[in-house]
Write a structure and sequence with these properties.
Number of strands: 27
Strand order of the largest sheet: 1-2-3-5-6-7-8-9
Distance between the termini: 90 Å
Largest sheet: 8 strands, antiparallel, barrel
Helix content: 10-25%
Bound molecules: alpha-D-galactopyranose
Strand content: 25-35%
Length: 502
């Protein structure tokens, strides 16, 4: 009995000790390639099994909700509603000595290790700064660009902060000679992490990875290609670099002076400074600035589809707008974004203004060639921007064949610019179709299931009639004619992509 009491007492002591260490300040510092740092900090208070406090990062401070302590483990949620809809993120963590290992998005999520800084009781959470509300903007005239969906390459999916001047030159060299340029890929786009601060006159500076942006643009142009860049309407980009807040016109002029042909403009920290209802006006500000910059610059909006960006993207001068959060190199991510989240968006896209389901992951290694063919087929049916996201300096023949299949690219680039609709769905089997400028139809017979299945496309669903010749765009083969319907055995996660011609 005495032993049991001692054990219970010891357990209580351990629990109290854990609770005491949990209360206090914990920080995680991310080192960036340019030597700067970015901090996430947690102020916690453990009271029995109740956990309270707040999280602070470059987006500001948010209270933790549903916080719970279990032994040395914690779980809580952070709810963001700064984009007009509530987005909840789950956090789960455990204390291990002076470390707090935190999983983001539940126990299976990405993790970060926070260090114990102090055991002080949390001070009051900093009040959020008052946000700017802009009046509705006047419509920004069309810049005449992107009559067909933009095609090119972007550094982010494969290289993130490792993008450099040298890499961009090497990718441009590769594109000019490996068949990518011939297939229609022209933009070489630098994503986030090129920025430094500003000089005394407020001019945006490049960091040491990009010693001379004008010289780089000249080099890319000398290859017969175009060059793109990235910024945010907020004070900081998503990776915490300098944004264009309060420098929109100046930055647009700088891009023009460098010879930049494409801007991806990513909402990110704009959330901290603008009321989200101002989002269209915030984008219009840069849309006008680009128009007045003196150089044609394609304007690509990146605000993850919040506030139904597709319904106002064109009016702010956008040539394309992201419709979802970030893609990752997995079947789950690609198929969810491509099939589930695009099905209702076809009315909003057309020549000069395109829905953007995010950049290609083809060739990055997380999917099979069959799945990458599905990715490329679906994006082409969707009239999506085709921005390769892999390392174009070394591409296997299989992947090059997927990226440069001219019959498939012709669907994406069709002059009519009509995005495909999902014309039938039977469980995992889906048929998507779009009319083409020459009176033909492009039709994708997709199998999202895990075993081979027969998929049938019916002329009545597609809106086609008469006798149609069937051309298989991956097999590069003619499959005779069809009148009422066409069926094909489609591999798991695969596609049969056909063109139906009179
Ligand atoms: C956001 C965008 C990505 C990429 C990163 C860069 O997450 O959606 O496509 O540009 O920012 O920080």
């Amino acid at each position: 009995m005495k032993n049991l009491l001692v054990a219970v007492f010891a357990l209580l002591l351990v629990h109290a000790a854990v609770a005491a260490t949990l209360t206090g300040h914990w920080t995680y510092t991310a080192q960036r390639s340019d030597g700067q740092t970015r901090e996430t900090s947690l102020w916690l208070k453990a009271d029995g099994d109740l956990l309270t406090g707040y999280l602070t990062n470059n987006q500001g401070s948010l209270p933790i909700v549903h916080g719970k302590v279990t032994g040395n483990s914690i779980a809580f949620e952070i709810v963001r509603d700064d984009l007009g809809e509530e987005r909840k993120t789950e956090y789960a963590g455990a204390v291990n000595g002076d470390d707090l290992v935190l999983h983001i998005g539940g126990a299976e999520g990405r993790s970060m290790t926070l260090k114990h800084v102090s055991s002080d009781t949390p001070p009051a959470m900093p009040a959020p700064a008052a946000k700017i509300s802009l009046p509705p903007a006047k419509e920004v005239p069309y810049n005449g660009l992107a009559k067909t969906p933009p095609m090119g390459w972007n550094s982010w999916n494969k290289f993130q902060s490792k993008v450099t001047d040298k890499l961009v030159r090497e990718v441009a060299d590769a594109m000019a000679t490996n068949g990518m340029k011939d297939a229609g890929y022209v933009y070489v786009n630098i994503d986030d992490t090129w920025e430094a601060g500003r000089d005394a006159a407020g001019n945006i500076q490049t960091n040491e990875k990009f010693p001379d942006m004008k010289a780089l643009a000249d080099y890319v142009h000398s290859k017969g290609l175009k060059i793109g860049i990235y910024s945010s309407p907020g004070p900081k980009t998503c990776a915490g670099y300098e944004g264009s807040f309060k420098h929109e016109e100046q930055d647009a002029k700088t891009y023009a002076a460098w010879g930049i042909d494409y801007l991806k403009y990513d909402w990110c920290s704009a959330t901290q400074v603008y009321d989200y209802h101002s989002m269209p006006a915030v984008y219009a500000k840069m849309g006008s600035a680009l128009l007045d910059s003196g150089h044609p610059i394609l304007f690509s909006l990146c605000q993850y589809g919040v506030l139904k960006g597709w319904s106002w993207g064109q009016s702010v001068g956008g040539n394309a707008w992201r419709t979802t959060g970030d893609i990752s190199d997995s079947w789950k991510s690609m198929s969810h974004i491509g099939f589930d989240l695009q099905a209702d968006l076809y009315p909003y896209s057309g020549p000069g203004h395109w829905n953007d389901p995010d950049m290609l992951e083809v060739g990055n290694g997380g999917m099979s060639d069959t799945e990458y063919r599905t990715h490329m087929s679906l994006w082409s049916l969707l009239a999506a921007p085709l921005l390769a996201g892999n390392d174009l300096r070394s591409v296997s023949p299989n992947i090059m064949e997927i990226l440069t299949n001219k019959e498939v690219i012709a669907i994406d680039q069709d002059a009519l610019g009509k995005q495909a609709r999902r014309v039938s769905k039977d469980g995992d089997l889906e048929v998507w179709a779009r009319p083409l400028s020459d009176g033909a139809y492009a039709v994708g017979l997709f199998n999202r299931g895990t075993s081979e299945a027969k998929v049938t496309a019916r002329a009545s669903d597609i809106g086609a009639s008469g006798t149609l010749h069937v051309r298989d765009l991956w097999a590069h083969a003619d499959h005779g004619t069809m009148s009422d319907q066409f069926s094909a055995d489609v591999p798991a996660h695969g596609v049969v992509l056909i063109k139906l011609e009179h």
